[in-house]
Fold Arabinofuranosyltransferase D.
Amino acid sequence: MTRSSAPCSTANVADLTPTPTLTRRGWTLSVLAWFLLCLVQAPPLTVADTKHDLVADPWGFLHQVLSPWTDIFPLGQLQNQAYGYLFPHGLFFALLSPLPDWLTQRLWWTLLLTLAFAGTVKLLEATGTGSRTSRLIAAVLYALSPRILTTLGAISSEAWPVALVPWILLPLVRILATDAPPPRRVATAALSSTVAVLCLGAVNAVATAAAVLPALVWWLVAGVGRSGQRRTAWRFMAWWAPAMVLACFWWIGPLLILGRYSPPFTDYIESAGITTHWFSLGEILRGTTSWTPFLSDERQAGAALVSEPVFVAGTLIVALLGLLGLLRLRDSHRTAWLMMLATGLLIFGLAGPFSPVAEDVRSFLDGAGAPLRNLHKFDALVRLPLIVGVAHLLSRVRVPIQRAQWAHPERHRPVVVVLTVGLLLGVVTAPAWSGRLVPVDGYRSVPTYWSEAAAWLNNPENGASASRTMILPRAASARQNWGNTRDEPAQALLDVPWVVRDAVPLVPPEAIRGLDGVQREFDTGTASPTLAAALTQQGVGFLLVRSDLTSAADTPGARLVLRTLRTSPGFTEEASFGDGDIHIFRVGEDAATTAPRTIHVDDLDVVAGGAEVLPRLAAADGAARDRILVGDAAAAGLTGDLAGTPVTVTDTPALREHSFGTVTSPDSAIRAPSDPWRGMNPVRDYPSVGTLTEVRESGGHILASSAADDPTSLDGADTLSSVSAAVDDDPTTAWYPASGSPVNQSLTVSLDEPVQQLRLTAQAQGTSLRLQVTTSREGQTVASTTMQVSVGRETTVSLPPGSADQVELRITGAWGRAGLSEFSLTAPDGTDVTPRRDIVVPPLTDGSSPGRWVLGQEIAEGTMRRTVTVPDGGTEVTVTSADCGVDVLIDGVAVPCGATLALAGGDHEVRSTARWVELRTPASESSTGGSGDRIVVTPTAVNSGRQARLDVDGQSVDLEPVTVNGWQQGWLVPASWSAVASLTDEDLAAAVTVDFPATTTYRAWLAAGLAAALVLLGAWLFLLLSSRGGYQRDRERAPRPTGAVGTATAALAGAAVAWILAGIPGILVAAVTVGALQIPHRWIRGTWIVLVSGGLATVLFTRGPWGAGGLSNSYAGDSLTAQLLLVVCLSAVVAAPRADRAFHQRDTARRAGSSTSE
């Protein structure tokens, strides 16, 4: 690789020997180059990078994060790691806030890239790796590695720790490369490393830990693991460990507070099945383990790196060059770099697609290990060793300086090599210099109508400050037709409390359910007489309706919302801004408030259900009442106070599968417990205190290969197209397969008992279809036949003779979208043996009696079917519904609105196409009353960290919390307290003070953390300024031969990595590779093995990149062959040097023997 085909003199070739540093001019030019690179990224557009507040209102944001709890944000909530922006991220943007927003972003990116580049150059110099040119190339490859290219423009807070990894490692490498350094130099090195840790910030604690881990590996291997440096290593740790405490102290306390009081939102965001799905060895080596670009093209550079073959090939070739460089590395640091690489491979490989323990690891990551779920943050453990390998390998490249050589590259191999390296560098960095660092949909500025609307709401004269403003319509993220801010534009503009239903609100799950219940009312597009009252009860006094969202925001749009508001009573349009882009509505005549108010326990409606049912109950009652869920009453110890109070029984919560992160069509139809769970999250839906309404199967089980009500499908959930729709006796609904061709999709019907000579009746919907019907018994096929099923009429066939307990209905032909509207199976005697799927409302089990049943289908079902259980003895019920123009069927009998009928004890089926149905018993009018207890409630989400104190007559007492209206924070005031007996409801509410006591600890910890950071910086500066002389790396130590113990340890470690990456096949190919290297043949050498195996793997990955749109049937990452080829490369890197030494020793001995014999 390094030789020309013709001899070249030193006059013809510039020998690029290592130099200590770039010159000052060189560093200046490098900074300028990085700035220019950032400057050409879509100027002058601001992009959605990490946090909108950083560019919109950085000083206000920094002031806001000084409190952990905020009543301003949706429903009141803890701010998720917002303290981590205090330094350096937030401070940087605050100090540069006078500059244009887009320019501040580019300067931040410049700083990040410069640090990544310079740190890598310094680190390579400290290890003596590479030539001056190869170090610069390697540093560029690190600064523009796939990890940084993917995250820089969209979430630079994740790229920032990667940029600082070399700076954390550098002082340790330098001090361990020095023989017997004085204690002061050791202390200076330790503090220098921890100052870099201090600069990491704390936007994400796991990213910070990931940035520190390479230094810890180096300390263990190159320090503690080497007897000559063990003393220095422990001296370093004696300074490093306490200094780390000083560097991280400021965010450890706030993180503990967040962990103590935050809702379990990690259950509702990305699952381990998603975050680790692309952990094949090829992606690990390339550095494309971040899952987001595989699912979204918002991050342009990242999407290109995972889907375009030229970038797949280029990045994998760079990784293979790094492996070749590590193979040829012979200095004393080789073991440390290999151990760092092995650590990274183990972390990624444990959850990889071919790991034998992947399922257990993913279960851990979805449970106790949820904070570690995004393992892609550990990329630096793999990236740095590979970059070192590239620097070492390219140090052999010499750059010809004669013009004649460049004029005839075919005659001069160095010219070809240099051109090839340059081409490769250009390809792998193309996403940067082609302007794709920024995410899509940048914007010049937030339109003025947003600031005008916010100013109107912030104006005290308009009254919005006393209540909460709801932003409509709901949207997963804020992607407007003028640009993408990701965070709500109003977030940095509003001083008044506000709420929006976005992808995953950081509030308790029952509060999200309550928010969803309200949102569904806006989607009807029809008048809702009690909607205004329901919003007032939730503290919502104003609505901000925006019309500038795009479909990419995952939103139903504003049209239906505006129609609902303009036809419903209680809403007054107060103002509009822009060209109808924003409308502001006032809610109700009585002003809503977020201040505490008092309610009476005796007036509470006790509800068996979830918080999402409250708008339905308001509609049924004609007014909004305060309610308490059965589970919340029990948790607060109010069971005795409410004993005998009739319970409102609802069909909520229901067993559904929810697609977390989406807001349009996110819920499946109601499921049976045995139905497959197609999502990857650790929970199916937002948990609720209520008992689940679910499908009760009888007579057998029906399993679909797929169903259109699957919320994880591309088109979202169509709840009219579930498995139950094929057996619900409703011709308007049908089972449809998930999006895509219906051919080869199937329903498998398992019967409780085998039946002879079945008859099948079926009816299609959409288009006619052809079914292949296969019967089987105990897993053995009995017979098969085909039938043509038409739309709109039933088709009946007798299935081939034979006893069967399972029938498969497989679609083998269809002309367009086709589904099964209905099917049934009958025995020869005419008995219907079709499995039933009845939706059963759970009966009360605590001894209380139902006062009424309120059943609904806010999530459309076509015909609502519910089975309710009437207690023994029976009862009379009066039937009403949302639409009295249609009858309600009870046990198949039509019952008009307002009619009363007697129901015997036991199960009864209720059917209706109305949105809700109420069955009211005479007991609903009764109430035990008399407790006199009161509750002070605020329309904010419950949180165990909030406390209320009652101050009366100079006495203070802490109140016990209770949840009201499904999610609102309340505190119980017993009537037995004589001090409150004379207080009116208004006076009682005014006497209660609500706070978040952990705020004091939070701020004290931040202050102490600031002091600790200043102590660290002061000590570091003192040692740095008082130290004499600069750093000088001592003479390189020759690597020592590995002993028997070391060889055995390396073999075990290599086998463990191979097993983790590819299981038993991985161990086998690793063993074969190591064995082959023992063969004394010039072509069976490590270099050739890496080139051949790596080349074949590159071909596979280039031919099978992740497909456009997130789908590919030939994705190479799923190929065990590609995985094993790269395991071969890794095995060669580890084993080849030892095999090469043995080969050379045998060759030398052979030559010596030959010369002696002569």
About this structure: Residues 1120-1157 form the longest helix (38 residues). Residues 94 and 929 are 57 Å apart (CA to CA). The chain is about 40% helix and 20% strand. Confidence is low (pLDDT under 50) at residues 1-18, 1108-1112.
